[in-house]
Amino acid sequence: MTAPPTQLSAVLLVGSLKSSSEPSSSELLGTQVLDAMKPHGVTGTVVRLADHDIKPGVELDMGPGDAWPTIREQILGADVLVLATPIWMGQPSSVTKRALERLDAELSEADDEGRLRTFGRVAVVAVVGNEDGAHHVCAELFQALNDVGFTIPAGGGTYWVGRAMETVDYKDLDETPEKVAATTTTLAANAAHLARLLKSQPYPPA
């Protein structure tokens, strides 16, 4: 009899510029990633970054009122980080970039064996927008996440972009495009597979 898979956890950081009181295409695609991970034994939580006072800076804690330390605990407590962002002016959103800046502090943090605390954690990306640029945004996020210690699986990005100069949002579609759904399914399977491998066989000591 096959043993049940090791249970994993994921945290979704939503980089929408809107608070959670408003619908978000980024959150929709991000939660679709979480849903696609469920059959692989992954449970997920959602953090809408715009709901929190994340102070500017590159330290673990930027002082009174800074919401990042609590968010950081959720990131380090999860096996998979899902980073979902809209495209604005061809770039990841400003709140997404704020999160990346705060993750820069992880470069100074190590476990008892000298590994970054982010080592062994998987990161994937979900991008939505109404203009071309999804590949560019994925490339920016992949580099930054890998630079601070996360591992990117094969097919680690899923995205949707509408036709140029139109106003249809991902959340307004009648159904998820077949290609997007298939890409998200593959991303979820690969992310869970890699996270489970890294959990059972950690990176070697530094």
Automatic annotation (TrEMBL):
It comes from the Bacteria. Residues 11-163 form the NADPH-dependent FMN reductase-like domain. GO terms for molecular function: oxidoreductase activity. InterPro entries: Flavoprotein-like_sf (IPR029039), FMN_Rdtase-like_dom (IPR005025). SUPFAM superfamilies: Flavoproteins (SSF52218). Signal peptide: none annotated. This is Flavodoxin family protein. It comes from Cellulomonas fimi.
